[in-house]
Design the sequence.
């Protein structure tokens, strides 16, 4: 019975990882193709469908962690997936005015390269039981460049969206009302920007430590 | 007797160990350690007996009142003690005082001062009676907490890590400001007079019941500060283990019925979940301690914190 469940888990995770891998591969391909042929203003429109699908699928990873299907702690997947979903749906999808900015290109390229490496790495481990050492190296080294480029793009895009957030009143609830409640999406965006200040160095340091552990462990083997 | 003091990595904390007289108490050991390492005052030291490797048992913490001889089995003149630095400590009284001071001062600022102009609202506003009563209720609550901290509570540990000051103050001060902002808002919508009276009335009764619970808990412990656990009895403790948390939760419910803000209810939910965690741990500890064996009383069947749910 246990073998059956383990097998089922492996099949499910293999399908999951390789499917989302294909999604992000499409994002990168379409982004680079559009950049070359039409220019950065059109990148969002070209990648929107695979981007929304692939990034939203990542919500499943929180579930995977919660039910113990994977080892990653929910405490690290939740902020990671949360911030990605915020950028994808809460900023890019909600405020079309910023979609033509060049930071969208740097964002989707940074994200898609990272995810292509990550999902194929897990796809390999689940489906074939191993991943080549260069793959491991890529997984734990690409962040050195892609985190700064990705995070800068995220911060830049949130900042650029601020005037449109303020003007549109979207997702905001005003007083007076029976429940004496209010939500100001503009101030929440400022708060989100604030989180990047301690959050980014913390995350980067965490990845550096992970890198050290993973690469030294593989040397020993 | 010779005491060898090691850290959990096996390193000797004090080279060569310590020499103490045979009838030395753990408190004497703590003093001796402090003399040799100025940084490690007694409340920072966590002293335990080493656990055999692979054992799943929780280590035995040395009680400062007992003599060291009680912990040596067989080897009368020699003992190895595991040392852990708990980090800088503050007294619980200090911690509670500062975490409660925030809400006591911040809330009236939103009531009395024209802060809403900084959020883009006009200075003129109408103050509803419920907002004034909420101010009195809130301030009474935190004043009561401070008084209980200094005159009623008997703590099982004298101190708490310094980092808890920042964490706890962030919690109380942020939530205090968050609720104060909405209750004192110029566009605040009050509930009916009847609902307000029910809310505050119920809340006040629960606050008084809560104080009485604290007095009962205090009387379970001796004044010399040795802590320890007893089976609570009397009043609501006969039906629920953590009646003090129960009355505190219901008291906040009363406040929210009277003031009706999402902010207040969010705080209620968060506070309830925190207290529920504590209550489960306490209930478990009491059941384990009072297992009915070897002459110990058996812990009676009781609700943990919120009848009829838990």
Sequence:
């Amino acid at each position: 019975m246990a073998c059956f469940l383990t097998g089922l888990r492996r099949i499910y995770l293999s399908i999951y990882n390789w499917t989302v891998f294909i999604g992000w591969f499409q994002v990168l391909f379409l982004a680079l193709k559009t950049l070359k042929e039409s220019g950065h203003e059109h990148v969002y429109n070209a990648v929107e469908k695979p981007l929304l699908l692939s990034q939203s699928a990542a919500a499943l990873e929180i579930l995977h962690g919660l039910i113990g299907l994977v080892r990653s702690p929910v405490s690290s997947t939740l902020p990671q997936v949360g911030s990605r979903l915020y950028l994808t749906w809460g900023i890019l999808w909600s405020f079309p005015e910023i979609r033509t900015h060049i930071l969208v290109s740097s964002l989707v390229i940074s994200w898609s390269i990272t995810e292509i490496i990550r999902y194929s790495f897990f796809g390999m481990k689940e489906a074939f039981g191993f991943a080549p050492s260069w793959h491991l190296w890529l997984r734990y080294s690409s962040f050195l460049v892609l985190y700064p480029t990705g995070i800068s793009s995220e911060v830049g895009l949130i900042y650029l969206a601020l005037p449109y957030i303020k003007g549109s009143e979207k997702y905001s609830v005003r007083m007076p009302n029976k429940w004496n409640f209010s939500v100001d999406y503009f101030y929440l965006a400022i708060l989100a920007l604030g989180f990047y200040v301690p959050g980014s160095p913390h995350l980067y340091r965490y990845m550096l430590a992970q890198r050290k552990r993973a690469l030294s462990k593989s040397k020993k083997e | 007797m010779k005491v060898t003091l090691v850290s959990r990595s096996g390193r000797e904390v004090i080279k060569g160990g310590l020499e103490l007289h045979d009838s030395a108490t753990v408190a004497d050991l703590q003093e001796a350690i402090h003399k040799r390492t100025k940084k490690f005052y007694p409340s920072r030291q966590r002293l335990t007996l080493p656990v055999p490797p692979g054992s799943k048992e929780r280590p035995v913490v040395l009680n400062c009142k007992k003599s060291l001889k009680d912990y040596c089995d067989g080897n009368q003149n020699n003992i190895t003690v595991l040392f852990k630095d708990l980090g800088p400590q503050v007294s619980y009284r200090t911690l509670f005082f500062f975490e409660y001071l925030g809400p006591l001062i911040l809330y009236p600022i939103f009531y009395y001062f024209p802060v809403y102009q900084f959020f883009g609202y006009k200075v003129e506003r109408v103050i509803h009676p419920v907002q004034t009563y909420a101010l009195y209720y809130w301030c009474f609550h935190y004043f009561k907490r401070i008084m209980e901290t200094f005159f009623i509570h008997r703590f099982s540990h004298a101190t708490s890590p310094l980092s808890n000051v920042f964490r706890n103050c962030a919690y109380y001060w942020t939530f205090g400001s968050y609720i104060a902002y909405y209750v004192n808002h110029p566009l605040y919508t009050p509930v009916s007079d009847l609902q307000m009276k029910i809310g505050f009335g119920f809340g006040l009764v629960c606050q008084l019941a809560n104080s009485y619970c604290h007095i009962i808990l205090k009387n379970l412990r001796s004044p010399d500060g040795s802590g320890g656990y007893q089976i609570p009895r009397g009043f609501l403790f006969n039906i629920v283990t953590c009646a003090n948390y129960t009355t505190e939760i219901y008291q906040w419910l009363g406040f929210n019925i009277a003031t009706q803000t999402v902010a207040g209810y969010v705080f209620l939910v968060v506070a309830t979940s925190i207290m529920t965690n504590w209550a489960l741990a306490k209930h478990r500890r009491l059941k384990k301690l009072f297992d009915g064996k070897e002459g110990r009383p058996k812990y009676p069947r009781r609700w943990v914190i919120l009848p009829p749910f838990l």
Remarks:
- Helices of chain B lie at 26-36, 92-112, 129-151, 163-183, 193-219, 243-259, 262-289.
- Strands of chain B lie at 2-6, 18-19, 45-48, 78-85, 89-91, 159-161.
- The mean pLDDT of chain B is 90.
